[in-house]
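hey so u asked for the seq, here:
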Amino acid sequence: MKTFPHLAKILLWFSAAVAAGAFAFVVALTFVVSFFREVEISAWNVVASHIGPWFLLWVGVYAIHNVLPIAVAHGRTRRDFLASTSVLAVLLALAGTALAWLGYLLEGGIYGLMGWTADEHGAVPAYFFMYLVWFVTGALCAAAFGRFGPGGVFVLPVAFAFIALTRAQIPGSGTLPFIPDVPGLLGPGWYGVSAAAFAIALAGTWAVVRDMPVRVRG
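ran it, structure tokens below
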């Protein structure tokens, strides 16, 4: 069963379709808002920095909770499936980052023509690391609950720390409770922290899935 190529193709096309629909919607919404008040923020930022990571997290959960049992039932080893899923995480993070950049580029052109202003959208690599870590964190949570049942709740504080830190360089997301300036605190080391979060979440997923019972869900 060629799970990875099939899943990757579907998800990449689906992601592009969702992004296109979301872009059309926020642009139309921005025009409506412009009749009532000045446009001062990027509408696309809501999609790229808020909806996008939740979509990637859901895909990570779906890969472990739904696709892994099917793959194992068709003769794939867990090691092989997780290796493919790791590649899928990188591909989807790259695709999401490219779509985010393209959306900001198109939105900037529209805003320029209309004389609107928008806030900064942050560095492109920040989106890649955010999407990458959110995907793997979703996979880790699905694996933890799949193996330990309600005990999987103990992985949630770690998951929250990972996804919160990887949002530090995204506009509007640079603060945490009691820590008002995460970007300033981490400085250039933010990328290293994000890479470490990805590596830890991925290693944790591999460790948990190794002994996780899998059942094909009807």
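Confidence is low (pLDDT under 50) at residues 175-181. The chain has one domain: 3-21+56-102+120-209.
lmk if thats what u needed
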